[in-house]
Design goal:
The complex is a heterodimer of chains A (207) and B (157). Chain A folds into 2 domains: 19-113, Rna Polymerase Sigma Factor, Chain: A; 130-206, Arc Repressor Mutant, subunit A. In chain A, 71% of the residues lie in helices and 0% in strands. Chain A has helices spanning 3-10, 22-33, 37-59, 62-79, 89-108, 130-142, 145-154, 157-168, 173-180, 184-206. The longest helix of chain A has 23 residues, at 37-59. Chain B is mainly alpha-helical. Chain B folds into 2 domains: 3-54, no CATH class; 81-154. Chain B contains 6 helices and no strands. Chain B has helices spanning 3-18, 23-35, 37-54, 64-78, 81-118, 122-154. Chains A and B meet through helix 1, helix 3, helix 4, helix 6 and helix 7 of A and helix 1, helix 2, helix 3 and helix 4 of B.
Chain lengths: 207, 157
């Protein structure tokens, strides 16, 4: 594999795929303020895959993810007037979903969501252990996506979340910081640690 | 090759994923990966992991979107401005009706006075009284029914 290909692939693509950009977000904000039911129908259709995946991987619980999916859209309906169209809709949507997950975890004591709060200790980031990297090498031949998914479920929710937002949803660092209501430095730290945790989880799976 | 160089390459690989690299670091990393098979394999493996992360397949329950759309529409109807308007319409109607009940004796005397002074037939006075008493409620009920008909017509689920 060429190094150029790696570099291009490693940095998330520009957010052109995201659906609604600046002009559209204003129209979207207007529609949400007016509680336009047809607009909401379209949004539910458009974001169902991404939102459900986010909720499912955050909770690890399909029925709960379904409940929270519905609650998220109810909240979008009720608080649509608060969306000002200046930020991306998906960031706002994920922030709503995230708050509902936190509320649910407080009510139901979901084990996988014990702490979506700040897990960071005050220690600086340490580069990943090189021994963990050897497991990645095994994946070169396997290309086993399932293994990555299973390993994702084994790492703490706060790392899983940030990895999903960055690499599945392809949100920018600032956008993730907005969703999580944390500084960008915390997002970066969680990404480094999350990648390291994922490698470790994959090491254990492969062993 | 020096171990420190591999460590730097691994660190830069992580940085390139998370926040991108400065041009100088990117150039250094390219050259290192071109020369170092071990680190190039690490880079390839990392890319595979990222690809898998980007492609995490999740099948959404088949009717989840439809159920959600239905629930959102129902909630929208329950808390819509039209529903709020209906509440106030009913409240005003109730207040109007109560006022009518309690003011009926006075109004009746007023109609009687009109009859006595202007010679209006008793039947006309009674009809006028009933009309005065019932019209606000009838108008309000008509408005509510009209609103419901409009709502059903535009929001058929």
């Amino acid at each position: 594999m060429s190094t150029l290909a790696f570099t291009l692939a490693a940095v998330p693509r520009p957010l052109l795929f995201a659906g609604f950009m600046t002009d559209d977000t204003q129209a979207l904000a207007t529609g949400l303020r007016q509680r336009d039911p047809d607009l909401l129908d379209r949004l539910i259709e458009q974001y169902q895959q991404r939102l459900y995946r986010y909720l499912l991987f955050l909770t690890g619980n399909p029925p709960l993810a379904e409940d929270l999916f519905q609650e998220t859209w109810i909240r979008v309906l009720e608080r649509g007037g608060q969306y000002n169209g200046k930020s991306k809709f998906d960031s706002w949507l994920f922030a709503i979903a995230r708050n509902l997950v936190i509320d649910a975890s407080r009510r139901k004591k979901i084990s996988s969501l014990e702490d979506l709060g700040d897990p960071e200790s005050n220690t600086p980031y340490d580069p990943p252990d090189e021994r963990a990297g050897s497991v990645l090498q095994m994946l070169v031949s396997r290309e086993n996506e399932q293994s990555v998914q299973l390993s994702l479920l084994k790492i703490p929710a706060y790392y899983r979340e940030v990895l999903l937002l960055r690499f599945s949803e392809e949100l920018g660092l600032e956008e993730i910081a907005g969703v999580m209501a944390t500084p960008v430095s915390t997002v970066k730290s969680r990404l480094y640690r999350g990648l390291a945790a994922l490698k470790t989880a994959m090491t254990e799976s492969a062993a | 090759m020096n171990e420190t160089l591999h460590e730097r390459a691994h660190q830069l690989l992580a940085e390139s994923i998370v926040e991108g690299l400065r041009p100088a670091d990117e150039t250094w990393l390219r050259e290192h990966l071109a020369a170092c098979d071990t680190c190039a394999q690490e880079a390839a493996a990392t890319q595979n992991v990222l690809r898998a992360l980007r492609a995490v397949p999740v099948s959404v329950p088949r009717d989840l979107a439809a159920r959600t759309q239905l629930r959102v529409r129902l909630r929208a109807q329950q808390s819509s401005p039209a529903a709020t308007g209906s509440f106030w319409l009913w409240a005003v109607t109730a207040a109007s009706w109560l006022l009518g009940v309690f003011s009926a004796p006075l109004v009746w005397r007023g109609f009687a006075w009109l009859g006595a002074n202007f010679g209006v037939p008793k039947l006309a006075l009674e009809f006028g009284f009933v009309l005065w008493w019932a019209v606000p409620a009838l108008v309000a009920v008509g408005a509510v029914l009209h609103q419901r008909a409009l709502s059903t017509g535009t929001k058929g689920i």
